Every structure is written in C-alpha cells, then in structure tokens.
Amino acid sequence: MPEVVATVMDNAHRLLMDAKLLESKGRFQSAVSLAILSLEESGKACLVRWKRQGFITRDITNDLRAGHIPKQRILGAYLFAKAVLDSVFMDEHGNAIEPFDLDAAVEIGAKAGYESGYKMSFYAESGSLDFMKMAGFYVDLNDKLEVISRGGDITAVDAARHIKDAETAFEMAAAPTRLQRGTAAVYEQGAHRKIRRRTRDLHEAFWAAISEHLKSEKPPA
C-alpha cells in the first residue's frame, strides 16, 4: 500500500476511534461529526489508491478538494459493488464463481446493488450527510436568526449508525483489488453527473419539523 494511502487511512482510523470515545461519553453530536469526517478520509484513501493503480485515469483534484460529497459518495458505490460481487460472483460459502446466465446475473446484481447502496448514495448526494456533520459542530440559524438545528438534536441512535458507516468505510479503503476496481467503476458512472443537492429551505423545513416533534415528546415541566 502506498505510504500516502496508509497515512490517510491512519487519520481515518484516528477520527473513528475519537468518535467511539466521544460516543462512550455521551457526546453524540461530536461523535457523529467525527465519524462522518472519518468516512470522508476513507473515501479519500480510495480515490488516491484508484488513481495510483490506474482504476481512474482522469484528474481527481476536484474530487479531493472541491467539497466533501464526492468522498462521501464512495461508500454508496462500495456497498453497491460489494453486493453485486457477493450476489453474482460468490457462492454461499464465499468462493468465487462465474455466472452461467448473464441476463439473470445482471438482474440479480443490479437489484442487490441498489438495495445495498441506494440509501448511502442518497444521503451523500442530497447533502444530508454533510448537513448532519455540520449540525454536530454548529448551532444553525435561518435568515430570521432563529435556531433550526442544534447538536443536542443528535441522539445515541444517530451516533451508532454513523460510526457503523465509518467502520464500513474504513474496511472499504482496505478492500481487495477486485472490489476496489468494481467500486471505482461504479463511482465513475456518476462522477460527471451534476449532484442535485437539497436546497437550504428544505433543510430548514426538515430540522424545524424534527425540532417540533422533539418538543412534543417532552413531558410538560
């Protein structure tokens, strides 16, 4: 493994361990933010590895530097690729096989890949994952200077889910070459498609609704 990839993965692991430590202390909002940062670093390690091994031949500068969504998207691509390989190219014992019916293999693989990867892809491409990361760090205000999200809205369930995703992302960065090549191919299919992010108005409406729901659940003082 190239030294630069190992260095990025070390940082991803540090952030993941810090997220787990904060989770154990009940600091769920900070744990979520660090877990998502760890996920992004694992995505960065994949991009560098793919470029070094020739799985991607184009310039990846924008993927690395222009925002965080491209790095977040990689986990969705990985989940898709892994599900395809597991459902089509592996038997029930984990041994490699070759599909005998190509049409059936495509149908089975596409269904398995979509079911496994679509949620993470949506969270990344919609901007929801990035917004969640920022919510762990900041109290967000709308144009009227009213609070629309606060770190305290983040729960233990959120922390556990995002830490699990970060763990999967770290495994992704160390995955074998065959799976890396497949993940890179899936990622590249959407690399040049304009990502349609949710508008700020939609985020504000969502967090306002969640806040109202949380208030309604609290017993009266």
Topology, please?
Blueprint: H1 3-24, H2 28-53, H3 61-65, H4 69-88, H5 102-125, H6 128-137, E1 140-141, E2 147-149, H7 156-173, H8 177-189, H9 200-217
Antiparallel strand pairs: 1-2
Structural class label: mainly alpha
Euclidean distance between termini CA atoms: 58 Å
- From the spread of the alpha carbons, the general shape counts as globular
Number of helices: 9
Strand content: under 5%
Could you give the count of β-strands? 2
Give the low-pLDDT segments: 192-199
Describe the structure.
- With 221 residues, the protein is mainly α.
- 71% of the residues lie in helices and 2% in strands.
- It has one domain.
- The protein has helices at 3-24, 28-53, 61-65, 69-88, 102-125, 128-137, 156-173, 177-189, 200-217; strands at 140-141, 147-149.
- A two-stranded antiparallel ribbon has the order 1-2.
- β1 and β2 (147-149) form a beta hairpin.
- α1 packs antiparallel against α2, α1 (3-24) runs antiparallel to α7 and α2 (28-53) packs across α4.
- The protein is globular, with a radius of gyration of 19 Å.
Keywords, please?
221 residues, mainly alpha, globular
Summarize the structure.
By secondary structure, this protein is mainly alpha-helical.
